[in-house]
Design brief:
It contains 1 helix and 11 strands. It has 122 residues and is mainly beta. Strands 2, 4, 5, 6, 9, 10 and 11 form a 7-stranded mixed β-sheet that branches. A 4-stranded antiparallel β-sheet has the order 1-3-8-7, with no helix packed on it.
Length: 122
Amino acid sequence: VPVMESGGGLVQAGESLRLSCTVSGLRFGVSNFGWFRQAPAKEREGVAVIRWTDDRTEYADSIKDRFTIARDNAKNTLYLQMNSLKPEDTAMYYCAVGDFFPDLLDGKASYWGQGTQVTVSP
């Protein structure tokens, strides 16, 4: 299943970015999705997830109230709106598709994208 992220880049602290993730080859509207990130020399961490049944979302405490996950089923696209970016948000951001929402919360996904780099300068 092709999973492709886009929208990363280099920004200054306080600025915003919107990441996009397009997915094909599956029933987008009945899939669970998540955004994860991994900074150099750090473990991958979950950023935000969204459940297909009711659009329930879960966020990491470090980005709560700054990032928003959303989906557009008509466009087969997942988004991550990132506001008030901080240097510590610098990481490779990955989009993931999960069959089971609880597994996704634990970082277990069926499909992963290649990632898009986000770099935030002070």
